[in-house]
Amino acid sequence: MQAQRGWVAEDLKKTTQWIHYLTPEEISALDTALSEARKKGLSFETLTKENFPLNALRPTFDRTLEELEEGLGFFVVRGLPAEKYSKDDLRLMYWGIGLHVGTAVTQSSRGDMLGDVRNFGVDTYSKKGRGYMSNQHLQFHADTCDVVCLMVLRVAKSGGLSRFCSSIAIHDEIARTRPDLLEVLYQPFYMSWKGQEAPGDLPYYQQPMFSMEQGKLASRFIPQHIIGYNAEQLPELPSLSEKQREAIEYVQTLANDPRFYGEMMFEPGDMQFMNNHVMYHSRTEFEDYEDPDKRRHLIRMWLSVPNSRPLNDSMNAIYRDRRPGAVRGGFPSHTGARVFETPVITD
Q1: What is the full DSSP assignment across 130-197?
Q2: Per-residue pLDDT tens for 247-304?
Q3: Which structural domain range is residue 134 located in?
Q4: pTM
Q5: What CATH number corresponds to the domain at position 29?
């Protein structure tokens, strides 16, 4: 099998393989599954693939998984008429879709299974700041799971543009132009847990920005979590070297170069899937409506998928089980709870 290749912005102009428009038959299948689930009184905890059947969408789910692991690394499913459903119905439908694509993992120590991507007024760059809880510009990064999925409920008054790039293309450009920095990026950096560490554990861990396993590249790049590069500095840890800082900034420079990134403006009902091992994503700052019922609102899932790649031992702190297809990643719940709506937390 040919190795997955990186892409640049010009490549996206030549293909529509990254987007699928739901057919009337697929929308009807979702309507039927949702209606039956409501009649039976099913909840997030009791919903399963078997009692939320979506046979008509199986080819689309299979195509999604293939594109994530073997294709461009991202996929968009569009055309769900979000305005005809309540937020509660969209949330349950989205959870049901996730069951057919992979296995959800928790997104925080609180046990978030569905993360509400809204402006909660949180500072992304604070000690425990999480980008999905603010309206600030987000730097290019990868999330802490195999696949990140977003369902769009409402868009902002202005801004909130989704941008994304191939970390394979970034890796290959660094190898071509600055191999000395690529060598640094394959070495471990100190990373902050952002308050998600288990009780009694150190507030940091180590990992490289790039790793390779069985011929498969993986990148986990979160600049706001790199200790010494963000607002957090721990006295017991060494400062970033000049070369480390230069390497981080070169990755950011390339990711923000229009030659390398694609972009899209979300529409209500969109579902965007990204393979975090081969993609970085960002978001422009946005302005919300005054009316709370009109404000930008997305729902996020972090998934382990059955066709995921093997990961290097250097990713052990985050992924724990590095075997292909394993349920792995996320920030484990400290209490064992599973939460399906993000509470308003501003600390």
Answers
A1: -GGGS-S-EEEE--SSSEEEEEEEE--SEE--EEEEEHHHHHHHHHHH-HHHHHHHTS-EEEE-TT-S
A2: 999 999 999 999 999 999 999 999 999 999 999 999 888 667 677 777 889 999 999 9
A3: 9-167+259-319
A4: 0.92
A5: 3.60.130.10
